[in-house]
Amino acid sequence: MRLNQYIACSGYCSRRQAERFITAEKVLVNGKTAPHVFFVKVNDHVEIEGQRILHTSQKVYILLNKPRGIICTASPAIANNIIDFVGYSERIFPVGRLDKETEGLILLTNDGSIVNELMKQENKQEKEYIVTVDKKITAAFMDDLSNGVDIYIPRIKGYMKTMDCPVTQLDDYTFRIILSQGLNRQIRKMCRRFHYTVTHLQRVRIKHIELGSLEVGQWRHLTEEELAGLNR
Question: Contact at 8 Å (CB) between 219 and 107?
Fold first, then answer.
């Protein structure tokens, strides 16, 4: 098995993060710095920054209804991190992130192989949100959001127009929006362009997986049907 895949399958991190560790020469195999392309054999000893990496065949897939205030990081040094909040007995990590003030559906796993498939922008995986804003919604505001909005992207130090997306008004202050992008704080920035402030933001669906009636702060394992949909 390729080294990056071996690390991801151990649940230590995603395959992309494993690549970063290898490039930074933080991965040792049998006591020696691992080359960028390496295939792990049965008796190889793999470690990252002194921690032994063990491959596991038991995959874990968890759906959490994340509360406000919980931070989507696996770093134990950060207070209110999502791993400590879930308190799962095995090593897992979040797939993507929700910002600290956003609640709702987030997946956690020890299977690094699904991360890229779910998070790659070109895969156009739908993510659905319920949004509440601070003043009455207008038809013009709904149209503007659905037709794409120029928002500032720090990574490119410039503006990018968001993709067209379905937007449905639910009441005077609440709407439903379906995105197939994963830009940082995208919905909040889209609303701010039209002088609206998001007061509550909840993700209720990723692809075919729905939050349903799961209460805030609770989690469950994915069903067989949900897992089958991930693999399609």
Answer: no
Contact 145, 165 (CB under 8 A): yes
- Residue recorded with tokens 């956003």: 102
Q: How many domains does the chain have?
A: 3
Q: Which domain holds residue 98?
A: 61-120+213-231
Same domain? For 202 and 130 the reply is yes
Helix (H, G, I), strand (E, B) or coil at 229: helix
The CA distance from 99 to 209, in Å, is: 20
Per DSSP, the residues of 161-205 read EPPP--EEE-SSSEEEEEES---TTHHHHHHHTTT--EEEEEEEE
State the CATH number of the domain containing residue 72. Answer: 3.30.70.580
* pTM, two decimal places: 0.76
Q: Token digits for 129?
A: 């949100």
pLDDT digits (tens, 9 = 90+) for 92-151: 889 888 999 999 999 999 887 777 666 665 457 899 999 999 999 999 999 999 999 999
Which residue numbers are catalytic? 99
CATH number (domain holding residue 35) = 3.10.290.10
